């Protein structure tokens, strides 16, 4: 698999006010932005060139950030978001012909990219959707006996033997790329019409644990998972300072951040360069560079 595209042009409305400062793919996750983790996985899976679309807060996708990725990336600006299908269509010149991995820029999942691509090639599918397994009738996708998509967005196209959640990572083949609209959605404007014509789409079994970073709670959960995977109680980035009277537990403190005061910082993310004064326990919150302290709803 030579090419991939990271979809990074969304508005991130569910994550406001965080996304008033940063696009979702640039949210700090552990020791780097989320999008850098995605680029690393793509490179490890054999991707040799990629494209990235930007629109909302486009200026935040700096040249230095993109240059640090382990795979060359063409950055495409959209004056307004073209949608998941339109974004891929707009990237045709950067990606060339053939199959393309499409990865939503707000998805964190430990996915075997090489295995996904191999399965797609073996099936000769028009597209292969990575699906986290669930029992039959559950989730956003229904899967048939041959691993084909038989339910999508509530529409049924065959007998379902298992369910699952589409994780926002898929391989799109050349036949479907030729049908892409200039603006539109991959599921609603490409996949559903294809299935209604009696044609097939394949699935690939993705890990059951994954994160759609669309809410503050989901963002904090992804951060906690990053720490747990590395056996870390907390992470304090280069140049950050934490006052002696502050107990940092289950939290990520970004590079150059300052945590002052006396008390506990639990289950939090402090963005690089941000400052927070802990006068009482701060739990389950994101501290932004502009000084916002944003907690998960409910």
Can you offer a commentary on this structure?
By secondary structure, this protein is α/β, with parallel strands linked by helices. Helices cover 23% and strands 31% of the residues. The protein is built from eight helices and 25 strands. The strands form six sheets. Strands 1, 4, 5, 6, 8, 9, 10, 11, 12 and 13 form a ten-stranded mixed beta sheet that branches. It has a five-stranded mixed beta sheet with strand order 15-18-21-24-25. Strand 9 and strand 10 (149-152) form a beta hairpin. The longest helix is centred in the C-terminal third of the chain and has 14 residues, at 216-229. It is globular. The model has no long low-confidence stretch (mean pLDDT 93).
Q: What is the topological layout?
A:
Blueprint: E1 3-7, E2 28-29, E3 32-33, H1 34-44, E4 49-54, H2 63-67, E5 73-77, H3 83-90, H4 92-95, E6 100-104, E7 107-108, H5 113-123, E8 127-134, E9 141-143, E10 149-152, E11 155-156, E12 162-172, H6 174-177, H7 186-196, E13 202-205, E14 211-212, H8 216-229, E15 235-236, E16 241-242, E17 246-249, E18 252-253, E19 258-261, E20 263-266, E21 269-270, E22 275-278, E23 282-283, E24 285-287, E25 293-295
Parallel strand pairs: 1-4, 1-6, 4-5, 8-13, 15-18, 16-19, 17-20, 18-21, 19-22, 20-23, 21-24
Antiparallel strand pairs: 2-3, 6-12, 7-14, 8-12, 9-10, 9-12, 10-11, 24-25
Quick description:
This protein is an alpha/beta fold. The chain is 23% helix and 31% strand.
Main β-sheet description = 10 strands, mixed
Backbone shape: globular
**What is the number of helical segments per DSSP (H or I, 4+ residues)?**
8
N→C terminal distance: 43 Å
Strand content is: 25-35%
| Helix content class | 10-25%
Mean residue pLDDT = 93
Report the structural category. Answer: alpha/beta
DSSP E strands, number: 25
Radius of gyration: 20 Å
What are the low-pLDDT stretches, counting only 5+ consecutive residues below 50?
none
